[in-house]
Amino acid sequence: MNKIYLDNAATTPLSEEVIDAMVNTMKMSFGNPSSTHSFGQEAKICIENVRREIADCLHVTPAEIIFTSCGTESNNMIIKSSVEHLGVERIISSPLEHKCVSECILDMKSRRGVEVNYIRPNEKGDIDLHKLEELLKASDKKTLVSLMHANNEIGNLLDIKKVAELCKANNALFHSDTVQTMAHMNLDFSDIQVDFASCSAHKFHGPKGIGFAFIRKATGLKGIITGGPQERSLRAGTENVAGIVGLGKAWELSLKNMVQYTQHMQEIKDYAVERLSAEISGIKFNGRSAEKENSLYTVLNALLPFKNPLIGLQLDMKGIAISQGSACSSGASKPSMVMMMVLSEDEMDNGTPLRISFSHMTTKEEIDALVLALKEISKDVAIEKTNLEHR
Ligand code: PLP
Question: pTM value?
Fold first, then answer.
């Protein structure tokens, strides 16, 4: 059976070039980057080359890029250190955030007594920026705003340039979880005045276990992992040199091919919307995911017009890997917080959400196979329902 992978928002397959670059680094540049001899310095150069390339693309200085183990660590570092070292007393966020942000905020609330204000999104998953401005003006407490750039379940994009302007005007710090958009969109942080952002290499065909935090120098943020002076003393621990090189190669490929990849994925997404709408009567699309504006081209979130909690398993048995939401909560039996925000009770009781996420390798034939599989499953559900009614 030819397997089909449509879960690219969870993770992406590694590019061959990334694997080659990593293997080469592991073989040839194994030195400890903190060592002063030539082996160490060679490894150090590998790291600094990647740091410079990323900084140039984001229009920031290399010192503002801090390598970490993943998006989760970057977000934790930024939020926890803002409270610990920058005196943040209040966090404004939304229920749409990834668990690594929302749980971290709750931790700061319970352990450090931080006040938390949530902006509830509308049924399309939009954050009301007037509400944000109102909240910003309502308190003199030192505030951190934490709002993600693109939602990992419904793909809604937030205007982070506008949010950054509101935060600056009201003396608040702004952190954006940019894990789903880094290397998928051109981000210019000399124009978008975010203070903090995060990146994870495995979302753009790089390896797992490596990411970075963008930390604007002027904020004076410190690290939370203490030890050696690595990463300008912001993140102690011997660096994952091969991982950083892999991140750098994946970044380079994504940036070089961005126009072509974006066009391809947008075309695939449009095709999926068209085919699913034509073949699955009653299907709906959640959030803004089926729209061209304000939606990330990698994610389409559908609501199937029947209840089927086993859909992921049934599709997997047909060779199609897909998820119903964030990989971090996919084992949970409850609908995700994001789904609770954008679906009505009736939709949750009688429908099945499905997150279809694309890469530059996804083909129209794979979408056709998904549509066929969903038609078969929906037919089985209808037969089952009729049998139950006649019992
Ligand atoms: N933030 C978002 C929006 C994500 O989608 C993810 C991963 O699913 C993360 C953070 C966590 O990244 P990592 O898997 O590198 O810890």
Answer: 0.95
Backbone torsions φ then ψ of 239, nearest 5 degrees? -70, 150
What separation in Å is there between the alpha carbon of 350 and the centre of ligand 1? 29
In 3-state terms, what secondary structure has residue 214?
strand
- Ligand 1 atom nearest 72 alpha carbon: 16
Nearest CA to ligand 1 atom 9: 71
Q: Are residues 185 and 294 in the same domain?
A: no
* Options 57, 70, 199, 328, the catalytic residue: 328
Residue nearest to atom 7 of ligand 1 (CA): 10
Position of tokens 């073949």? 279
Q: For ligand 1, is residue 180 a contact (CB within 6 Å)?
A: yes
81 lies in the same domain as 211: yes
**Domains in the chain, number:** 2
The token pair that represents 76 in the structure block: 């934790």
Cα 28 to averaged position of ligand 1 atoms, centre (Å) = 31
Is 328 an annotated catalytic residue? yes
Judgement on whether residues 292 and 247 belong to the same structural domain of the protein: no
Among left, alpha and beta (phi > 0; psi -120 to 50; other), residue 125 is left
Cα of 305 from ligand 1 centre, angstroms: 29
One-letter amino acid at 159 equals: D
Q: What angle do CA 214, 218, 224 make, to 5 degrees?
A: 55
The boundaries of the domain holding residue 384 are 4-12+257-389
Compute, in angstroms, the gap from residue 203 CA to the centroid of ligand 1. 8
238/290 same-domain check? no
* Ordered per-residue pLDDT tens for the chain, 391 residues: 789 999 999 999 999 999 999 999 999 999 999 999 999 999 999 999 999 999 999 999 999 999 999 999 999 999 999 999 999 999 999 999 999 999 999 999 999 999 999 999 999 999 999 999 999 999 999 999 999 999 999 999 999 999 999 999 999 999 999 999 999 999 999 999 999 999 999 999 999 999 999 999 999 999 999 999 999 999 999 999 999 999 999 999 999 999 999 999 999 999 999 999 999 999 999 999 999 889 999 999 999 999 999 999 999 999 999 998 665 555 556 789 999 999 999 999 999 999 999 999 999 999 999 999 999 999 877 776 666 666 6
